[in-house]
């Protein structure tokens, strides 16, 4: 059964009436502490939404953009209600979508390539959250067929996941944890990965992802794939690098996360197919809203810090050769 699609939000930068509809996070026992960490209360939300909307309305280069509360709170919560940091992330998010259409355009679960990657279990959200309410995802990166797909397809699947859960209030507040299972990575995958590609991905992760990255775990990493993991680490900023870990297997990973959240095949409760089914249903329900994001627009032909040229400059806070290297014992 196909879930009912959600209505498409307004993309006018100055709508007649702003959409203030949004939910308050609830559920985890730690939610109060999480909101305190975010410096969030009703007054702060109203004030910062007004500031961000006024900033969008007066922005000389933003042409079309969502201004509804559900969308803007992604950026405010990711940056703990710092208006300056949230506005910069929104600029870079819009710029990244323009610079990398092969990553962000047509995030459609019915697209043959995305549907195939979803069917093989390349990436999917886990059905349950951790004790703090963090969104959990598992990526079996080696299932990316190097004869058919490139890193662009991997990035597009990750963008699909992020956007499908972008309006999830608990994910906005508590953040996300991603597990990368590398056991199927083979020598052929090296042909689709390069340091320049990893640098581009890290630039986006460092500067333009509107979600709180709580942890990145790599598991089952073969010796031949360590350079991919460490190469990516070299470009990530220090804050995110310090939240990365490597585990030899799922037994070792279980020391860092609640194993019951994982698919049954890895020691959890429900089979992988159930997690994949729930993920596809989520993507289907938010399909029209994700496709509408393609109509947002920012002009990059200028010399502002988030311009076409600046977005391709060196990444702040990360460089090859200067990072905490992960090794297998």
Q: What level of helicity do the residues show?
A: 40-55%
Q: Care to count the β-strands?
A: 7
Q: What's the quaternary structure here? A: single chain
Helix/strand/pairing category: alpha/beta
Q: Roughly how many Å is the radius of gyration?
A: 19 Å
- The H/E string reads HHEHHHHEEHHEHEHHEHHHE
Unreliable spans are 314-326
* Strand content range: 5-15%
State the end-to-end CA separation: 48 Å
General form: globular
CATH architectural group of the largest domain: 3-Layer(aba) Sandwich
Number of individual domains: 2
- By CATH, the superfamily of the largest domain comes out as CRAL-TRIO lipid binding domain
Mean of pLDDT: 91
Number of helices: 14
What is the CATH domain class of the largest domain? Alpha Beta
Strand order of the largest sheet: 2-3-4-5-6
What name does CATH use for the topology of the largest domain?
Answer: Phosphatidylinositol Transfer Protein Sec14p
Mind summarizing the main beta sheet? Answer: 5 strands, mixed
InterPro entries: CRAL-TRIO_dom (IPR001251), CRAL-TRIO_dom_sf (IPR036865), CRAL/TRIO_N_dom (IPR011074), CRAL/TRIO_N_dom_sf (IPR036273)
GO molecular function, one term: phosphatidylinositol bisphosphate binding
Protein name: CRAL-TRIO domain-containing protein
Organism: Anopheles merus
